[in-house]
Design brief:
Oligomer: single chain
Order of helices and strands: HHHHH
Largest sheet: none
Distance between the termini: 18 Å
Shape: globular
Helix content: over 70%
Radius of gyration: 15 Å
Number of domains: 1
Strand content: under 5%
């Protein structure tokens, strides 16, 4: 019982952050469209899809229904973002992309950690 409260608060904080990022994707899709790599067709569709996925992950983690799966899928999605969006930018010399790359890695690690500690 002692570890439950901090754990529930931590999961909720992470989930709320995912939900807010999801809302930002839906409300600012036009501004984010340029972040979709040019070799991936669909552009803005992917921004909306990611927004919906983040909101659904938020709901799943907070309610504890399929939270392990949602956490793992979120982590995988964030690793894909790291490899396809931010790593190429950093390798091209864009130092402004480095904090975003590190943020994505940290968020992916947190998603995997939460997934490992959820009881579905």
């Amino acid at each position: 019982m002692k570890a439950f409260i901090p754990s529930a608060i931590s999961r909720s904080m992470y989930a709320i952050m995912l939900g807010l990022f999801g809302v930002f994707h839906l409300t600012g899709a036009k501004d984010m469209e340029g972040m979709v790599p040019s070799f991936i067709p669909g552009g803005i569709f992917w921004v909306y899809l990611v927004g919906v996925a983040l909101i659904l992950a938020c709901i799943s983690i907070i309610w504890g229904k399929k939270a392990r799966l949602a956490s793992y899928l979120t982590g995988i999605m964030l690793v894909i973002f790291t490899l396809t969006i931010y790593l190429p930018q950093v390798m091209d010399g864009d130092q402004m992309a480095m904090p975003l790359l590190l943020k994505e890695i940290a968020l992916a690690g947190a998603a995997f950690f939460i997934g490992n500690h959820m009881e579905d």
